[in-house]
Amino acid sequence: PRDTLWSDDDLLSYLNSAAERLASDTLGLRKGFTFQVEAGNPRIPLPASKILDIYSAGWNVPDFGTKIHDLKWFDLGDSILTDDYGQILRVQPDYNTTGNPRYFTRDFEDDTLRLYPIPAVAGVMTVFAYVVPDQLFAGSVVPFRSNKDWDLLLLWAKNLAYRKQDADTVDLTRADAYRSEYLSTVLDRRSELDRITRDGGIMKPR
Prior knowledge:
This protein is of the alpha+beta class. It has three helices and twelve strands. It has a four-stranded antiparallel β-sheet with strand order 1-12-3-4, with no helix packed on it. A four-stranded mixed β-sheet has the order 2-10-9-5, with no helix packed on it. A two-stranded antiparallel sheet has the order 6-7. Helix 2 (147-161) runs antiparallel to helix 3. The chain starts with 7 loop residues before the first helix and ends in a 9-residue tail after the last helix. Residues 200-206 have low confidence and may be disordered.
């Protein structure tokens, strides 16, 4: 009775879900963020809905002409490694200490990054992260460029499309087949992206 089985809104919803799923499964999308940080403020609000995981962060004080240095990850409540004249020690951080930030952690309770020590002067923090794509709309460009990613994207979208509870569209056998093909392929794609993006021959842990 209808010319189409799925509306444009249906298809857009399936593509958005598939794009988010693919980005989460492969960690294939990367984006850089820059935050201006005030002196005395160790917390930086995150666009948490976009960031899956952080793989690199840096600190810079442009007014002093300092170069960006890498920040190390640490967990709240955990100890950190310090260098005491060549002797590496593990100590519990004093969160009230101020200075030049050397560590950062992600506080999931309030969606912030926390710097340690607390910045003594204003600076700039750069964050490179694995992200989920922005929501697609009619006419927007899908952020994946590889044909392999497109194939995976469409497999998951078809999996969702054939689960639509409609007499003309529901086909769980076909949906399960698309889902199985996606799941059996996506891990290989993630491994391939790891090999492509590894740094200096050393695989960065995820």
